[in-house]
Amino acid sequence: MHVLDLISSRHSYRGTYRDIPVPKADLLKIMQAGLDAPSGCNKQTTSLIAVDDKGLLEKLHQVIQPAAGETAPAMICVLTKRIYAYRDKCFAVQDYSAAIENMLLAIVALGYQSCWYEGHITDEDRIGEQMAQILNVPPEYELVCFLPVGIAKDQPSAPPKYPFEQRAWLNGFGNHA
User: What is the per-residue pLDDT across 29-62, written as a single tens digit (0 to 9) for each?
Assistant: First the structure.
């Protein structure tokens, strides 16, 4: 699939997944795509944990409330380490966002679906911290996101998007191409 087609065909999938394991080789390719993302001042603040062990997935899903991605046969947890690039600038959010987008594209390219769950686990209930404890994540890391990974049971649907002309211009705000 051409990369531009891949980008426009990727959509968040919040449905049920088929009970078909994701091969470890595919999980490693997806994680490598994430680690290949750019990183502010090359500080490489993003780390990843793939989980495909059914018992461990069950423990993680016990703390994810409300439930999300619970039928996926695998997940990738995204960790960040707050490292200052220079002066008071930390690009951890940009770093892990780039990594997540790369992984979402790799997931679709390999025939799987996913959804970016971040706000769901970083709210006041601190689900990400509970997940990090289950995964033995050291305290200097923060678990900020998880991506369920699997083959979709249903076809993902595209959400409505505003027209291009309402969000993109050429040579100045409001100038149409």
Answer: 999 999 999 998 888 999 999 999 999 999 999 9
Q: What is the pLDDT of residues 97-135, one digit of tens each?
A: 999 999 999 999 999 999 999 988 888 889 999 999 999
Q: What is the largest CA-CA distance in the chain?
A: 55
| Residues 131-161: tens digit of each pLDDT | 999 999 999 999 999 999 999 999 888 889 9
Chain centroid, CA 60 distance in Å: 16
What's domain 21-149's architecture? Answer: 3-Layer(aba) Sandwich (3.40)
Q: Which residue has the tokens 């531009």?
A: 4
Exposure of 6 in the CB half-sphere (CA atoms within 13 A): 16
* Cα(127)–Cα(169) distance, integer angstroms: 40
Per this entry, what is the length of the chain?
Answer: 177
